[in-house]
């Protein structure tokens, strides 16, 4: 089969790489390309990269660099304009080449599904912390642990196999958030300083700040990084007795967002009086990280709850909030080289294998583990 693959990410870029594979590569390139001088191009298996011209229509040519990989594969390095890249790919499709995505190409080229998934996820890794963990999996950390579990099962050592899988699954939450950010919802009564807190944490004004209660009706999101972990912050409508249907819907949306979040930051204005409504909110989100804002003002009366006492007007408070937030999200960061499942399919397969082991079904456990290695669907990158 003849294939054409764009290996560089979609969108505008300085350069693009188009890979051609298949028995027709030599003939098609010799027909399509000429040397920069206008001389005839000859496909040579062990040639150095060469500057060539590719016809794009109306007597126009695009200059590009050709690298011959082997007798049935070559790479074209050209200008990264998406329209130009599409025109070049379309010409090869017209010559009988099948278009393949770079993700499909990686799945086909890698030795197993786990390394393919890691390589694809690496393209979207937002931080070095995430990158280093995914590189460990690409290097075989997860595959080796699954191999150990399979060897234990082959020896009827169910206890060891179970321990290995439980160790892997202990990292489920961390693994699934390597490329999908932790969702953190900022929740609390109106005017507690939620929007100010969001802006303060990310370092620029993303949310509107206004002293009028109920200003935030539509939630605002912003992507950021906390101690190397990808995080998406949600600024939500203040919770109180709604004044109209619009506010009631905004408050209902706040509760939906909070229920789906990995962590809730429950924000109170410490300069106000502690009320029964505050106590009810604390009970509703009893696992939340409590932020007592506006410590730069005199404290309000009442039996206040415990929480992190801060002010968004005091820059020195910010590191403590970020440190506490990171500790809440990832209490025990994985050590270097740790095996970590990082796709939903991997986690589901490991859980299936563990359930089979608990039932004494070695055959089902072996099949589930082999499926993880052979059919682990990677996170798709847009």
TrEMBL record:
Coiled coil: none
GO biological process, one term: tRNA wobble uridine modification
An annotated Gene Ontology molecular function: GTP binding
All copies of domain G, residue ranges: 183-293
GO cellular component: cytosol
Stated name of the protein: GTPase and tRNA-U34 5-formylation enzyme TrmE
Organism: Thermogutta terrifontis
